[in-house]
Write a structure and sequence with these properties.
With about 240 residues, the protein is α/β, with parallel strands linked by helices. Helix content is about 30%, strand content about 30%. The radius of gyration is 17 Å and the shape is globular.
Length: about 240
């Protein structure tokens, strides 16, 4: 099982996961070994539920990573190492943008570890003050994300974080796929892409997108317009009952 994703990025933007692999030689052996160990530990703790919430749907569950304090601590440490390895010390983010709602679970903690600020992206009407708005397409219609206009200063480096990157297309024997995520990528857009657009609209420099988990056989990263990096991967063949 690979500890990083292997999907092919679109030709017009780089693959952050591939770039991080090229930088492994600049990482200390101790740091690389620590990250590899954390990845294995975290991956073993993921759970999948077949036929939930309805028959034919596979539910990918990352919540065990937050239920145990030691796993939670390991997750934040692994993400810290992963972001530093992926973007390098010279391109450390100034701001971590987290998507409503599961990006809020780990985004602020990761931002603290990185010495960065945290800025939320929320559904329309939930943020006070002056906001910028971006639509995104869901399976059953359109929705809107907003960000506060003063959340990011012009020229600040930004990463967008969420829990899972996936699509809802038919895979194998499953009619569809349901995951615990706000990063589901629809054919004409998605919530993560909308967040990236908001970052650029208010003057931020979008370094890329960072996810805890990628269902890489669904090719969700192909819908995003900047480098994509994921800490863990999951395959249907890795199915694990709770």
């Amino acid at each position: 099982m690979s500890s990083s994703t292997s999907s092919h990025p679109p030709p017009d933007h780089p693959d952050a996961t591939e770039a991080s692999q090229k930088r492994l030689s600049t990482s200390t052996p101790t740091t690389s070994a620590e990250l590899a160990h954390l990845r294995m530990r975290l991956h073993r703790s993921l759970r999948q539920y077949p036929d939930f919430p309805t028959p034919g749907i596979l539910f990918e569950d990352i919540l065990p990573l937050f239920a145990d304090p030691l796993l939670h601590q390991s997750l934040i440490r692994a993400l810290e190492l992963h972001v530093t390895e992926t973007f390098g010390q010279g391109q450390a983010p100034d701001i971590v943008v987290g998507l409503e709602a599961r990006g809020f679970l780990f985004g602020p903690s990761l931002a603290l570890k990185l010495g960065a600020g945290f800025v939320p992206v929320r559904k329309q009407g939930k943020l006070p003050g002056h906001t910028e708005t971006e639509p995104f397409t869901k399976e059953y219609g359109e929705d809107f994300f907003q960000i506060q206009m003063d959340g990011i200063k012009r020229g600040q480096r930004v990463i967008v974080v969420d829990d899972i990157i996936a699509t809802g297309k038919s895979i194998g024997g499953f009619q569809s796929l349901y995951v615990i995520t706000m990063a589901d990528i629809a054919p004409s857009g998605g919530s993560a892409a909308a967040a990236g657009s908001l970052v650029k609209k208010i003057g931020g420099i979008l370094l890329g997108y960072v996810f805890i988990l990628e269902l890489d056989f669904l090719k969700g990263r192909d819908k995003l317009d900047a480098a994509v990096s994921t800490l863990l991967t999951s395959q249907e063949s890795d199915f694990k009952k709770p």
